[in-house]
Amino acid sequence: MKVGVVAFSLYGFSKDLFDLQNLDEMFKSIANAGAEAIEIPCLLNSKNCNLDILLNNRDELSKFLKLIADNGLSISALNCCGNPLHPQEEIRIVEIEILKNVIQLAQKINVDNVIVFSGCPGSFTGDENANWIVYPHPKVNIEILKWQWEKIAIPFWKEIAIYAKKLGIKLCFELHPGNLVYNYDTFINLRNNTNENVGVNFDPSHFFWQSIDPLALLHKIKESIFHVHIKDVMFNNFDCSLNGVLANKSFKEKADRSWIFCTVGRGQSYEFWKCFINTLRLIGYDGVLSIEQEDLLFTFFEGFRRGVITLKKLLNE
Q1: Does residue 214 have a cis peptide bond before it, meaning omega lies within 30 degrees of 0?
Q2: In the chain, how many domains are there?
Q3: Does 44 have pLDDT greater than 60?
Q4: CB 21 within 8 A of CB 13
Q5: Domain that holds residue 48
């Protein structure tokens, strides 16, 4: 396995992607920290990936890829985690266009994996924003959830899965709360209604606070693990005892949340992470471990650097 990183504006980079001096500095910093691969976010208004330029300007694309290769890095995935099921048509159209363009770009640069969220629709009552149903009361919630799957999500993702398969691209769904697909049952529902190109970007951090056992889930969906994120969760036990884990406070209120994301090894024990790496080996995963640095107690680069050190130690045991 290789150590990688999700290249979200590394330690404050905010210039345009095609400021090549800036980009070269970013890739050098990633490589010097010990990473071997990068995951490129391709979101709406992304500073890291200008889709129009990459798809339509061969020279700029060549410069971009050369900078990555010259720094000894590979691309593990393109990340397109938006909401293509958004209930507002004007937003949904843009999200779908971005998703299809990212799939095209992945094929063009020979990257197998595109990381996505399933997204979440509104309801048949005409919501303007997503309506994430996690409780069966009142009874209309069950009707809304059924409608979201049967009328919106399954038809859409069935079509996109066929499109991705034709281009040889794997769709790596991040099982992320707030989306229709966030646990075992919801993933299997999607997989059974699409095709074998639908798999998982396995991020254990989302399972810790849902009381899902990441090790058990790895074994259960082992053939569907296409890509892996590395991110930990630190619990505030006092706040958990008062409010539980359904934390809807802003991440900026980190001292008052029941949990926050953190650098690998600062939440779960080192022994857990050793078991996690060994389980990946047992199920045959030999891809990239992509660090997603969202530890608010460190700068991006410091958290990323600490994560690389921990992962390298784990991989060498």
Answers
A1: no
A2: 1
A3: no
A4: no
A5: 2-315
